[in-house]
Amino acid sequence: MRARPLQVQPERSGPEPVLEVTGLRVEVHAGSAGWLPAVEDVRLRVGRGARVGLVGESGSGKSLTAQALTGLFDGRTLRAQGQMRLDGRPYELARPEAWRDVRGQRIGLVFQDPLAALDPLQRIGTQVVEALAIRGGGSRRALRARAIELLRQVGIPEPAERVDAYPHELSGGMRQRVCIAAALACDPVMLIADEPTTALDVTVQVQVLELLGRLQEDRGMGVLLISHDLDLVSRWCDEVHVLYAGAQVESGTAARVLGQPRHPYTAGLLASVPAASHRGARLPELTGGVPEPGRLPTGCRFHPRCPRADDRCRTERPGWTRMKDGAVRCHHPLEVRSGMVAGAPEEGAPDDHRPRAVADATAGGSGGGPEGAA
Amino acid sequence: MNRLRFWIGAAVVGLLLVASWLYEPLAAWEALPACPFGPDPTFPATDTVCGRTLVGLRRSVAVGLFAGAAAAGLALFLSLLGRWGGAWIDGLIARGADLAFALPDVLILILIAFVVGLLRDAHPGFRPDALLVIILSLTVVGWAAPTRMIQRRLSTLASQDFIVAARALGASEPRVLLRHLLPFAWDYVLAIFLLRVPATILAESTVSFLGFGLPPREASLGTYLGLNAVSLLRSEWAVMVPALVLLFLLVIAFQWLGEGLLGRVQERRT
Amino acid sequence: MSPVATRALKGALIIPLTALLSWVLVAALPLRTEGEAKTETLRSLQAQLEADLGLGQPLGFLRPWEKLLAAERLGDGGRSYTGAELMRALLGSLRIGALALLLSLAGGLLYAWALSRTAGRWVAVGLRSLPPLIYALPTFVVALWVARSTGLAVDDTEAWQYEPIAAAVLALGPAAFVGAVLAGALEEEARRPYLLAARARGLSREQAWWRHALPNAARAVLDALPPLATSLLAGSFVVEKLFHLPYFGYLYLDAAQHRQLALVVVATTLFAALLVSVSLGTDLLRSWWDPRTAAAEDAR
Question: What is the pTM of this model?
Answer without folding.
Answer: 0.83
